[in-house]
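Reopening this one. Same input as before:
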Amino acid sequence: MAREISENIEEYLETLYKFGSKDSYVSTTTLSKELGIAPGSVTQMLKKLEDIGYIDYVPYKGAFLTAEGNKIAQKITRKHRILEKFLKDVLNIKDENLHAQACAMEHSLSDEAERAICHMLEHPDTCPDDNIIPACDFNFESCEDCLNDHLDFDDIEERDFNLFSISQLSKGDEGEVLFIRGSDDALAQCVRVGITVGSKVKIEESESPNFLFYHSK
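Same output, byte for byte:
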């Protein structure tokens, strides 16, 4: 049975995802300022999250998401950013209200509703702030596969590993493409340059596409 995750825990993990990376810790001070919570209370929560297995915590250094914590953080971050995109592009909500409104909605948005919004928005790469929208958890190789799938929602399998955008790699890094986001045009663009799911890529430019995702253990 999946563990019930409180909104409070989701906020902590989402903030760690926002300010951290695969290689860096986020300080207690940063979390305290961003969440508006006293440093002592933040420390208590970090110890709790470490006991659960969502983070690694080092006193006076900060916290670092584990693979399990990162998976949850990516999921809630995806919902937040895709909601911002929906609120702006479909409902014409003012920019200054997008973040607060998405925060109020993200914790109650079902995976099924999120998938429907993603299809309606045609698989967006970024939110209105140009931050990358993480890949979904559904076990498809491309958005087109997801769009053309007619299984009952409850029968759709989820990935058991994390995906990261190729654009998050640095020049010289390597990765294996396991998911391609976007429409037929994105797939056709990849095919033209010889990239398919399973392709090994090495980053030669400082900027790379947001629609390719790789697996990182």
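So the earlier flakiness isn't reproducible anymore. For the record, Residues 7-65 form a domain with the Arc Repressor Mutant, subunit A fold (CATH 1.10.10.10).
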